[in-house]
C-alpha cells in the first residue's frame, strides 16, 4: 500500500509539472485532468472518498472554465 501511495504522489507531481511545460492548452488540460484524477485516487486510497468526489467536481468545473477561456484566446486571431 505504501508503494501505491508513493506511485500516486509521484504521478500527481509529474501531472502538475506537465501543465506549465506544454505550450498547447489542449495537452496542458490533459495533464490537469490526469493530475486531478490521480489526486482524487490518492484521497480515496486514504479513505476520504466524499471529499475526493467534491474536490473532483469543483476542480473539474474550474478546469473546464480555464480550458474554454484559453482555447478561445488561442483561436482568436486578433
From TrEMBL:
It is a multi-pass membrane protein. It holds the Pfam family Oxidored_q3. InterPro entries: ComplexI_Subunit6, NADH_UbQ/plastoQ_OxRdtase_su6, Nuo/plastoQ_OxRdtase_6_NuoJ. GO terms for molecular function: NADH dehydrogenase (ubiquinone) activity. Its main location: mitochondrion. The keyword Nucleus does not apply. This is NADH-ubiquinone oxidoreductase chain 6. Core subunit of the mitochondrial membrane respiratory chain NADH dehydrogenase (Complex I) that is believed to belong to the minimal assembly required for catalysis. Complex I functions in the transfer of electrons from NADH to the respiratory chain. The immediate electron acceptor for the enzyme is believed to be ubiquinone. The chain crosses the membrane at residues 28-46, 53-75. It comes from Piprites chloris (Wing-barred manakin). Residues 1-18 form the signal peptide. Its EC number is 7.1.1.2. One of its GO terms (cellular component) is mitochondrial membrane. Keywords: Electron transport, Membrane, Mitochondrion, NAD, Respiratory chain, Signal, Translocase, Transmembrane, Transmembrane helix, Transport, Ubiquinone. Belongs to the complex I subunit 6 family. The gene is Mtnd6. It catalyses: a ubiquinone + NADH + 5 H(+)(in) = a ubiquinol + NAD(+) + 4 H(+)(out). It is found in: Mitochondrion membrane.
Amino acid at each position: 500500500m505504501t508503494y501505491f501511495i508513493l506511485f500516486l504522489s509521484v504521478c500527481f507531481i509529474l501531472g502538475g509539472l506537465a501543465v506549465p511545460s506544454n505550450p498547447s492548452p489542449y495537452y496542458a488540460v490533459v495533464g490537469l485532468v490526469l493530475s486531478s484524477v490521480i489526486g482524487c485516487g490518492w484521497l480515496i486510497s486514504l479513505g476520504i472518498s466524499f471529499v475526493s468526489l467534491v474536490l473532483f467536481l469543483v476542480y473539474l468545473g474550474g478546469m473546464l472554465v480555464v480550458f474554454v477561456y484559453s482555447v478561445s484566446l488561442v483561436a482568436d486571431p486578433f
